[in-house]
Amino acid sequence: MAFSFDRYAAIIFIVIGACFIFESRKISETAYGSNVGPDIFPMGLGILLILLSLRLLFETRGTSQDKAATGALDYKKFIIIFAAAILYALFLEKLGYVITTFVFLTIGFQVMEKGKWLKSLVIAGGFSFGIYYVFVKVLDGTLPGFPVFF
Q1: Residue 34 — left, alpha, or beta (φ > 0 → left; ψ -120 to 50 → alpha)?
Q2: Could you tell me how many helices (H) and strands (E) the chain has, helices first?
Q3: Angle at CA 38, nearest 5°, toward 36 and 42?
Q4: What's the sign of the alpha-carbon dihedral 77, 82, 83, 84?
Q5: Is 114 left (phi over 0), alpha (psi -120 to 50) or beta?
Q6: Listed residue (134, 130, 132, 114) closest to 122, CA to CA
Q7: What 3-state class would DSSP assign to 134?
Q8: Angle 142-129-81 (CA atoms, 0-180°, nearest 5)?
Q9: DUF1468 domain location, by residue (predicted)?
Q10: CB 139 within 8 A of CB 41
């Protein structure tokens, strides 16, 4: 039985999610008696990644590897998103989490579905500010803040 790209990706993401959970257990718990430590967020991300990957794995279980049915791979979109991810990693410390995440998500949304700028900007902004607020303000974690010129 030939595996499709989605199945390989699901298996790889399950392994990555397991690594997230395993490695998050090595992060020291908070010393102030709080129930929420710095290990909770990466562990939650690992669990979410595993659950979504299992769903993808089961959804692709009955599909075939017919190239005419699945269409050709779109290398241009892949290269654009890959380059955006590298730039995201390079500028994360300099520009801060909110700005780099907002720009990366906006690029990703526009690459996947051109147009609908307002929808892309609202979702990217809501996600960027929402995750920053929850992680930094609620969970007392640290993420790169805004650059000095703000």
Answers
A1: beta
A2: 6, 0
A3: 105
A4: positive
A5: beta
A6: 130
A7: helix
A8: 95
A9: 9-144
A10: yes
